[in-house]
């Protein structure tokens, strides 16, 4: 079976309709129209758009307002006689999503509200390779508890959490393998469950979802961009390299949810040994630490993000070793990306995570390899662009995935908080 | 937009139902149940399964029988009192699909009936690289005319045709690029249209669809295997190498329909020059002619299929050059396949076309590379198997695609032939 995440909506009730499911459908329909609108719609506009009666729309909106999912926008100026119609918007002070990330050299926590705004964001830099999984997740739980307190102070209720990890996750929330962290068969969901609960119990919103960081970063990027079904390859360049494949607005997860391991595509079959056990994987050429080492910045004892900023400064100043390292990394990345484009016929490649500040130097060699190697390149250009979100994409994507679950099934939240 | 071929069914009519569309929906529904049944269903069984009335089912079946889409199977033995129920099956003497293929070193034509049986199959071996597109398509039209006469003699009506080409095709039926044939911007649909029409005009069934041969071969394989939504990578190993990506029973076509160009994924970025203009593409290592050359069979002046058979014989006899050539080809193929599996998390790889007879020697090195390079290989095995169909897969897939269009919208056929 193919798992495409994204928001699955309840189907419109068919055949014999129970009142419960009809109410749920109407709630979802109206909330979806409010969330998707260009400008705050009035109740009358919602009725016209949904074919529901004015009375039904009014009752549904009242439920949504009482449950802090929707609020009235500032009145729009009168355009004629009568009262101005009050438009409806998603509530910025209702439920929110908690996004968590464990990566090789940082922990991140963020809170995103229903409108998609980031309300809290913490990044804690530390090399987590020498640290046990329990210790790493304990530190993360500490950061999360502070985020929760901050969110509560802003009137927000955390309705669920999602955790991004740089590895392969199974359905039970266990990390099967995270080669760059050195984790193998780590029950992260169980380890986090040992800490005090951070989120309210909401039907239809799991308290904790564990997912691959490249997948969540791609979802973060998808929902930070313009609305509409986008298709792109999002590459997260951290110590490891992961990719999220977004097709028509949905994440493509593969047969068992383990797609996107672009970091282990081969660039040179007999190249340097990789932490995965293979040789010549893309990661050995274009992982963050490989680029820094090639530029002579490996021994500088700086955190990777600071070293990356330094590398960008050196490249901007025309320092030859920095330029050469980025040229070589971009060429290897371009070889792999050209292979993906030949295989999947994607027209947009997004460079995210630690790559974002390096895009000015990575993009030209990536485009050169695409132009050399992609069969359709001559008449069908591929766009290579930096991600809208930077290194925070995975945590933001994680928090956003919680929010979208609430929007997709508002009845679960309303049952407790309405 | 993402084009997933496969059979698109009309949606069940919603809201106000017009009689025309309701009749069409019932025809499609009943025909689909007959096509999908394990054993010939009776009218009563169809009524129970579809929730249609007995009278409606009888009327629909009468239309389908009159239109030669359905026929009554041999009576089943009585199981109790009363008349034996007569089961219904797809008609073997109604409409059929014409499948055409132009490849680098052969032309192929086949006819597939509604039941999926191959009723005519011709392969004409000739190196088409020195031949103009018009001449090649003229020869193909000659073979097709003979296939049509043979089909008519068997009581079949060709309802439409599909043409497989080893290159990139646009929506207008133009080959943008077929590197191994040396074709660029060839209007194949227009060139074939200069020959007398071969198929009946049926609403909803285009007289000629042009598609990539690897896509059609993958569809041929999909519909030759067990029913149900399969997911696999199908690799067609001819002079060029193409792939069809099947996800949950549908072909994945990519943003512009040009997915599957696995032959131009890089194995060694600075390897041998490829006809595409790149270097070190998979095709330069594992294309049919590359394997034969490595085995010392290139100058033998044999057609590729005969030379491939000879290579298999030499390998079976333990001839060192043959074994070494296949080992090296399989290793290069394995590097590319491992990259695809890392990227897409597919669990089945099918080796088809000219690879089918070489699978005993290609499979071990392919599996070895998967095991070395795929992150999930240790706990999530990948099956590598030969295709059910051999080199005829693309033409059979092409003919089958026509048949599936008729099954998906029987009303078009019935309007003229009912």
Automatic annotation (TrEMBL), chains A, B:
MF terms (GO), sorted A to Z: kinase activity
Record-linked Pfam families: ROK
Keywords: Kinase, Transferase
InterPro entries documented for this protein: ATPase_NBD, ROK, WH-like_DNA-bd_sf, WH_DNA-bd_sf
Signal peptide per UniProt: none
Family statement: Belongs to the ROK (NagC/XylR) family.
Protein name as it appears in the record: Sugar kinase
Lineage: Bacteria, Bacillati, Actinomycetota, Actinomycetes, Micromonosporales
């Amino acid at each position: 079976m193919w798992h495409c995440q994204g928001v699955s909506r309840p189907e419109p009730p068919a055949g014999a309709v129970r009142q419960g499911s009809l109410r749920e459908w109407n709630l979802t329909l109206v909330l979806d129209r409010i969330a998707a609108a260009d400008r705050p719609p009035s109740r009358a506009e919602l009725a016209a758009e949904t074919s529901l009666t004015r009375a039904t729309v009014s009752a549904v909106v009242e439920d949504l307002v009482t449950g802090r999912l929707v609020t009235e926008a500032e009145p729009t100026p009168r355009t004629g006689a009568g009262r101005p119609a009050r438009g409806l918007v998603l509530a910025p002070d209702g439920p929110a999503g908690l996004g968590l990330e464990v990566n090789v050299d940082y922990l991140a926590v963020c809170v995103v509200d229903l409108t998609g705004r980031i309300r809290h964001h913490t990044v804690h830099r530390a090399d987590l390779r020498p640290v046990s999984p329990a210790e790493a997740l304990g530190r993360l739980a500490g950061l999360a508890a502070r985020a929760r307190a901050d969110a509560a102070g802003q009137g927000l209720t955390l309705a669920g959490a999602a955790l991004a990890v740089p590895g392969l996750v199974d359905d039970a929330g266990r990390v099967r393998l995270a080669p760059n962290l050195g984790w193998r068969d780590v029950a992260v969901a169980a380890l986090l469950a040992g800490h005090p609960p951070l989120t309210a119990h909401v039907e239809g919103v799991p308290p904790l979802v564990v997912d691959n960081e490249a997948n969540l970063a791609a979802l973060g990027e998808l929902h930070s961009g313009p609305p509409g079904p986008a298709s792109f390859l999002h590459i997260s360049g951290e110590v490891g390299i992961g990719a999220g494949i977004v097709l028509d607005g949905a994440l493509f997860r593969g047969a068992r949810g383990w797609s996107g391991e672009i970091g282990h595509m081969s660039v040179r079959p007999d190249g340097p040994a990789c932490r995965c056990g293979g040789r010549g994987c893309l990661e050995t050429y274009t992982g963050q630490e490989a680029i820094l080492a090639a530029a002579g910045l490996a021994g500088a004892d700086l955190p990777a993000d600071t070293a990356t900023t330094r590398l960008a400064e050196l490249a901007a100043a025309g320092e030859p070793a920095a330029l050469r390292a980025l040229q070589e990394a971009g060429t290897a990345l371009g070889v792999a990306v050209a292979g993906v484009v030949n295989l999947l016929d994607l027209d947009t490649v997004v460079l995210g995570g630690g790559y974002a500040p390096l895009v000015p130097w990575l993009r030209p060699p990536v485009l050169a390899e695409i132009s050399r190697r992609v069969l359709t390149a001559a008449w069908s250009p591929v766009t290579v662009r930096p991600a809208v979100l930077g290194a925070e994409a995975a945590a933001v994507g994680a928090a956003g995935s919680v929010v979208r679950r609430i929007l997709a099934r508002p009845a679960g939240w309303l049952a407790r908080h309405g």
